[in-house]
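Cont'd.
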Amino acid sequence: MPDQTIVLVHGAWHGAWCYRRVAELLRRSGYRVYTPTLTGLGERSHLLSRSINLSTHIADIANLIRWEEIEQFVLVGHSYGRNGRHRVADAMSDRVSALVYLDAFLPTAGKPSTPSSRRSGRRAASKCEGSNGLSVPPMPAAAFNVNEADRSWVDALCTPIRSRH
Amino acid sequence: MKRTGRGLTPYAPPSARDIDPTIELTGSYRRIAAMSYVLATQNPAALFDGFARSMKNEPACRSYELPCGHDVMIDLPKETAAIIEEAAARVVGER
C-alpha cells in the first residue's frame, strides 16, 4: 500500500465535492487524500465575505499541511491559479514531492497573473455587480463542457467565488 | 503519520502567515522533481492550451491529454486518478 499523501485543490466555484469520485478511487488504492474546500465555497460557502483574499486561500491549504502534520505530499490543482496552490508549492517546495496540474493555470515567476488572466478577471469583475462586488457567480457547467449527465449536478453545487482581490 | 522513532520532534512547516501573497514567487517550485500537466482537450475555452504546450518543454513534466471537458475529475475520474497515481509512483521510484 502506498504510504503517500495527496492534496487535491479545487478551482473557482467548485469545492471538495468535485473530487469525490477521484478521492474515493485514490483512497481505495491506499493513499491518504485531503480535499480542502477554500473559504467561501462549497460546504464553506456560508463564510463568503469581503475579508476573503488570496491570503485566506493560501492559509486554507498551508494550515491543512501544518495541522495535519503532512511532511510530504503530492499537490494537485485544478483550473484557476488564485487558489493559493502556487504560493504553497513555492513556499513548501521541499515538501511537495509531485505537482499535478489539471487543466490549470501555471504560475508565472515574478508575475502574479498573466495579461489574459487580468482581462478575464476584469470581465469577471464586471459580472459581479449583482453581489455589489463581493463575488462572481458560477459559469454554467455547459460552458466548460462538463458531461451532460453531470451538468445539473455541477450547476447545483457550484457557488459564487469572492471576486478578484 | 510516521511518528515512530521520531518521538515528539517539533514539526514546523511554513505557516500560512509566512507566505506573503504580495511578494513574487521565488521560483523554488521549479525544483519539484515530478510534475504532470493534464490538458482537457474538449474544454471549449481552450484557455490552457498554451500552458500545456509550455509544459511539454519541461524535462520534469509528463504531459497528458484527456478527451473531456474542463472538469476532468468529474468527466473522467478513473483516468484522472490514474494520472495522479502515476505522479505519486514516480516519486517513490526516484527515492
